[in-house]
């Protein structure tokens, strides 16, 4: 039931008025250990806000973020991240991390790669001994395919893919259990995207880390995610194991997004769906089902009744009044192609 609302003040000729922007509204989901959950949706749907609230980079307005840690040194097995503050939050921080979108602006050009990767260990006070820090940095750098020569250089000497590997090494150096990858491959060429996705998968196998993989490109999300959540104007509309979501979606918005991805087998493609209009402004989100202004299947009650978030099949959740009636299964059922 995580919600994040921001007050937005509009200045007018005479005075001003303040409205609440419901960036994230009553979102519930679970990420298991060693699993990747993909989070997709159009720009402004609230994906980044979910990730940042989970990391406690911003405070949730209401709801809970519960973290079941496996670390042997943890004081308790379940931590209520939304209640942490001060020293407790600082001590907990190394268990969670973030990989940003732009590898060009997220690395300090005045620091060597060694110092960039070591920074989370130093800033959190996790390690103080230089030899110990160097050993940890060399270990994570090698896993991210960076050698000793790379560690001595500055960021400007590297390509986009190499810079993102430095960012991943920095995110994983404190051995976090949970990492948010916020559009982490979106700024890269397609071939480099594949390289980074493979690296993340290998690191997950080696270290057992869980990822929240935020992206707007569904085909990249399909490659890396065990499960996928779809967001629309601050709400989750569907959440399911990747194959189920890509093979037989139950929400018209997911169906519309998937219909825009061409597959090599023309018989496996959904008939293309063109949505009306633009994504609504979250400040003036539509009543009832927020998708009703663009949904090709909308009926009268859709504009008044908020659809219930419910499990429509095993591990398959959606919020549409008529989910059980829709059959959006792919015309040619070749799941391996997806
Ligand atoms: Fe479309 Fe109505 Fe379902 Fe919303 S509840 S997705 S408007 S059919």
Q: What is this structure, in a nutshell?
A:
This protein is of the alpha/beta class. The chain contains 10 helices and 12 strands.
Your description of this structure?
This protein is globular. The mean pLDDT is 91. The chain starts with a strand and ends in a 20-residue tail after the last strand. An 8-stranded mixed β-sheet has the order 6-7-8-3-9-10-12-11, sandwiched between helices. It contains 10 helices and 12 strands. It has 2 domains: 30-225, Rossmann fold; 242-337, no CATH class. The chain has 338 residues and is α/β, with parallel strands linked by helices. A hairpin with a 4-residue loop joins strand 1 and strand 2. Iron/sulfur cluster binds at residues 251-252, 289, 291-292, 295, 297-298, 302, 307, 320-322. Iron/sulfur cluster (SF4) binds next to loops.
- Within the CATH hierarchy, at the fold level, what is the topology of the largest domain? Rossmann fold
Count of helix runs:
10
Q: What helical percentage do the residues reach?
A: 25-40%
Share of residues in strands? 15-25%
Order of helices and strands: EEEHEEHEHHHHEHEHEEHHEE
Question: What ligands does this structure carry?
Answer: iron/sulfur cluster
Strand order of the largest sheet: 6-7-8-3-9-10-12-11
What is Rg? 21 Å
Mean pLDDT: 91
Q: Quickly name the level 1 CATH class of the largest domain.
A: Alpha Beta
Distance from N terminus to C terminus (CA atoms, Å) equals 31 Å
- The chain-level structural class is alpha/beta
Shape: globular
Number of strands: 12
- What composes the largest sheet? 8 strands, mixed
Number of domains: 2
The low-confidence runs, each spanning 5 or more residues with pLDDT under 50, are none
Protein name: ABC transporter ATP-binding protein
Membrane topology: Peripheral membrane protein
Domain ABC transporter: 1-258
Subcellular location: Cell inner membrane
